[in-house]
Design a protein that fits this description.
The chain is about 30% helix and about 25% strand. By secondary structure, the chain is of the alpha+beta class. The chain has helices spanning about 5-15, 25-40, 85-100, 115-120, 180-190, 220-225, 240-245, 265-275, 285-295, 300-305, 370-390, and strands at about 55, 75-80, 105-110, 130-135, 140-155, 155-170, 195-200, 210-220, 255-260, 280-285, 310-320, 325-335, 335-340, 345, 350-355, 395-400, 415-425, 430. A hairpin with a 7-residue loop joins strand 13 (about 335-340) and strand 14. It has a domain at about 210-430: Gcn5-related N-acetyltransferase (GNAT) (Aminopeptidase, 3-Layer(aba) Sandwich), CATH 3.40.630. Monomer. Its EC number is 2.3.1.97.
Length: about 450
């Protein structure tokens, strides 16, 4: 809910003497969401931030209740053991049947169990941070939220934190207002470990984003995307025109490009750390975390035989003369289920993840014309190859945000701006705004670019 809409709702409430029943169902939900966030340690929409730092500094772990929050009588808390295949199956079914859909309810994320094992079992993960709600009588899982430990760097400040993800409530129970209870319960469990900040994202506007990025899409299989209604046929264009426009070569162009291996971790990690240091908001990885996120923790031998089932794809560029790693990039797979379509059941989706290159390291000012030109040329080559690799493993579209240095290549590589925006939030922390790669009119901003260097799944 943005500030303008909030003011409209407040005005309506004032006209109706604060009676929520006078609002329509969507307006009542938005007003309740606003009232909930007003009770939380987050910056308000109109707050004039003077200094960055924690909002609520007073509490200690011993101040936090040891018992879970109360629930409605028909529900009970359930700590999910994702090493237990039955419980993992419960999470799999809940999210695949009830998680985020597009506004037309035509597509829904299609998570796999391997994806959850990768996403929820980062180094340092805690079982108690995988929080479920079940129906007491049946044992059916009807809500879930997760946290994983991360270290954030916001400009010069290092913040011990968690990343909150996969908040999902069964579609038939969303009137029960379980989301605020889940958020408060995961907060309680994390606070008990002396962690007071959290990074989270949402497509909706809550109080109060530190940055906003836009989703962009690069068609790989335009014909299929058109068939299922993911994309439209532009005016004055034919299907043949569009197929030709988005055609890709079958082989890569960058010399020395190869899949990343365990032996590359040390050098790729150093390259990555140096590149990430340019952004205002990043996640600081340990080497163990770097290995987990970019090599994965599933059976690599199995994945090598069936690349179409692989979760994360990471590549390095090795200079043939020096043997030095000059570049790194990664993307991950998270397909969509296509709902109610007679000819197709799934869309293969690739998401640009992290990357790094030394292309502009020799320049003092990375925003100078020469440095920008060098970086833009190299990113065009690297991400161009990432797109080809994604198509070769049967992905149908390649997605990227306007974060990192992405606005340098999005237009060159035929990424179209999507309808969706992603807002970044830090719980219990005031922060000055961070550029998200967008101009005021929401177009790409290749000059200022983005200072968001963190990528969430």
């Amino acid at each position: 809910m943005d500030e303008k809409k909030l003011q409209e709702l407040l005005k309506l409430l004032q006209m109706n003497n604060g009676d929520l029943s006078k609002l329509n169902e969507q307006q009542r939900k938005e007003m309740k969401d606003y009232k909930f966030w007003k009770t939380q340690p987050v910056a308000s929409f109109d707050e004039d931030i003077k200094t960055e730092g924690p909002i609520d500094k007073a509490k200690k772990p011993e101040d936090i209740p040891a018992s879970p929050l109360p629930l409605l009588n028909e529900f009970e808390w359930s700590t999910i053991d994702i090493n237990n295949q039955t419980e993992l199956e419960d999470v799999f079914l809940l999210l695949n049947e009830n998680y985020v859909e597009d506004k037309d309810a035509a597509f829904r994320f299609n998570y796999t169990k391997d994806f959850f094992n990768w996403a929820l079992k980062a180094p340092g993960w805690k079982e108690e941070w995988h929080v479920g709600v079940r129906v007491k009588k049946s044992g059916k899982l009807i809500a879930f939220i997760s946290a994983i430990p991360i270290t954030l760097k916001l400009r010069e400040n290092t913040i011990k934190s968690v990343e909150i993800n996969f908040l999902c409530i069964h579609k038939q129970l969303r009137a029960k207002r379980l989301a605020p209870v889940l958020i408060k319960e995961i907060t309680r469990r994390v606070n008990r470990h002396n962690i007071w900040q959290a990074l989270y994202t949402a497509g909706t506007v809550l109080p109060s984003p530190v940055s906003t990025c836009r989703y962009t899409h690069r068609p790989l299989n335009w014909s299929k995307l058109y068939d299922v209604g993911f994309t439209d046929l532009p005016p004055n264009q034919t299907k043949t025109d569009m197929l030709a426009h988005f055609a890709l070569p079958k082989t890569n162009k960058v010399a020395g490009l190869r899949p990343m291996e365990p032996k590359d971790i040390e050098e790729a990690y150093k390259l990555f750390e140096k590149y990430q240091s340019r952004f205002d908001l990043v996640q600081l990885f340990t080497k163990e975390e770097f290995s987990h996120w970019f090599l994965g923790n599933v059976d690599e031998n199995k994945q090598e035989k069936d690349l179409e089932k692989k979760i994360v794809f990471s590549y390095v560029v090795e200079d043939s003369k020096s043997g030095k790693l000059t570049d790194f990039f990664s993307f991950y797979s998270l397909p969509f289920t296509i709902l109610n379509h007679p000819g197709h059941s799934e869309l293969g989706i690739g998401y640009l993840y992290y990357y790094a290159t030394d292309a502009d390291f020799s320049f003092e000012d990375r925003f100078s014309n020469d440095a920008t030109a060098a970086l833009r040329k190299r990113l065009d080559e690297l991400i161009g190859d990432a797109i080809i690799l994604a198509k070769n493993v049967k992905m149908d579209v390649f997605n990227a945000l306007t974060s990192q240095d992405n606005t340098l290549f999005l237009e060159d590589l035929k990424f179209a701006p999507g309808d969706g925006f992603l807002n970044f939030y830090i719980f219990n922390y005031r922060a000055f705004p961070i550029t998200g790669g967008l101009k005021e009119n929401k177009a790409y901003d290749p000059e200022k670019r983005s200072n968001i260097g963190v990528v969430m799944l």
